[in-house]
Amino acid sequence: MSKGQETRQRLLDSAQQLMYSRSYSDVGVQEICKDAKVQKGSFYHFFSSKSALTVEVLEQLKMQMIKSILMPAFAKDLTPAKRFERFIEYAYQYQVQIKEEYGYVLGCPMGNIALEMSTQDEKIRKKVEMLFESIFYVFVDVLDDAKAVGEIDSESDTLELAQVCLAYGEGVLLMAKTKNDPEVIKQLLPHVSKLIGFKANKQ
């Protein structure tokens, strides 16, 4: 990695950490540069604005989520129902780790940005929408597998169920953040199996 690439990556990493632990609006370019140990002029060499930086931070978050949570959770070594159970455990453990590090449950980083910025910045809104769509299709894939092996009804609309999973999961993360308690995830997220309609004798 070249020196320029290293500088750019430090800016992305600092922005991601600061925005996730606080908020988009609460973090300015100057603070990001200070945290990344980068001159402000260098920031604008790499990014035209904080908004442009945030779009790339969101892409980085997506890749991290795919690698650390979605791919291992939904690996096809388990039945579809068990994959969902593993995903719930990974989501729970991630927020436990976050609370240990920051003292707070921080919820979904993409959901946080969506709540704050969707009416303020169209480029950010569109990016978050695209990232949620990526997660949506991961859910569609595992639900199609569940349908194929008879774990859910053959007439199930997997596109609709995937939207339900995404919306319910985001809601649970918001409740966990509001209560500052990751146990909310362990308590509520398993109910997604009932919403999906997994057959008890198949799990």
Brief write-up:
74% of the residues lie in helices and 0% in strands. With 203 residues, it is mostly helical.
Q: Any overview of this molecule?
A:
By secondary structure, this protein is mainly alpha-helical. The chain folds into 2 domains: 1-47, Orthogonal Bundle (Arc Repressor Mutant, subunit A), CATH 1.10.10.60; 58-202, Tetracycline Repressor, domain 2, CATH 1.10.357. Helix content is 74%, strand content 0%. The chain has 10 helices and no strands. The N and C termini lie far apart (46 Å).
Q: Which structural class is indicated by helix and strand composition? A: mainly alpha
Fraction of helical residues: over 70%
Radius of gyration: 19 Å
User: Mean pLDDT score, rounded?
Assistant: 95
Count of DSSP E strands?
0
Anisotropy-based shape:
elongated
Distance between the first and last residues' Cα: 46 Å
Could you name the CATH topology of the largest domain? Tetracycline Repressor, domain 2
Strand content: under 5%
Low-confidence stretches: none
CATH class of the largest domain: Mainly Alpha
Count of discrete domains? 2
Secondary-structure blueprint:
Elements: H1 3-21, H2 29-36, H3 40-46, H4 50-73, H5 80-102, H6 109-117, H7 122-148, H8 158-179, H9 183-188, H10 192-196
Helix pairs in contact: 1-2, 1-4, 4-5, 4-7, 5-7, 6-7, 7-8
